[in-house]
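Entry: NmrA family NAD(P)-binding protein
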Amino acid sequence: MSSEIPMRVAVVGATGFQGGAVARLLAERHHRVRALTRRPSADRPPLPGAFFLAGDLGRPEDVRRLFEGTTHGFVTMPLVYDPEQVEEYALNVAEAALDAGIVRLVFNANTRIPLGPTDVAAFETRRLAERVLRDSGVPLVVIRPPVYLDNLFSPWNGPALVDEGLLAYPLPASARTAWLSHRGLAEAALAALTREGLEGRTFDVGGERSLTGGELASAFGRGLGRAVRYEELDPAAFERALGRLLGPETAAGVAGIYHYMATGADPLLMADDDGVSTEVLALAPAPVEEWVARQPWQVWSSDTSPLR
């Protein structure tokens, strides 16, 4: 299989940041993209080259229509952490993918997943979805990302980074993390869709190398051309702020990952995998400072003068 051979790809989650990045890269590489959405056309993100179908992941007939005639599939679950609902979504995807006879399905788990069971819904619902998809017999590759650099290019982090040199995030400063961009996820997804002999494998994808909070701040400082310091944000405060945007239930699901990391139970959960995924998937993630230097940080600045 080659990334140059045209694919027809069903992308679940294409209206989100992660699935959207994958859909854009696929369209750039001249693959045909089909996406399922509940959003009205006026509220959809711009995805040139993608064909949208109105529908719901919870309705089997809608998911079958999405996969009909496709050769491949990519799945990012929505920010839902109810086990029954996630299992229903995964079953609908598995059945539709099998009916369509797709060559390969790539499942983005949204996060790394600890080896053993936890009481964290964000981990266990994704573990459940993986199991449902794998047990179905669909040709499956799983990618598990760490934390996204794009989370830091936001109204919550951008102004403090640009104006104060403050990088506040709810990860322990000592937690070594292989920060990844949404574009990096898309490149990993494309490789997982197209490289030969990957069925059944799971990859802890990530950036060039693992960074502590202080090392991340130094990389941001090099990219921004100013001193940057890292500050551990209280996961509870992060959850409260997120709740005002997404609602308390979704915020609790997302923040569960950071509450878990704060316990120190698995300090290397978000770290790199010793280069396994980059070698097998033939990835070349850019250093963090290069990603930082490419972003238009001035949009968050209270000062209109150039940053550098």
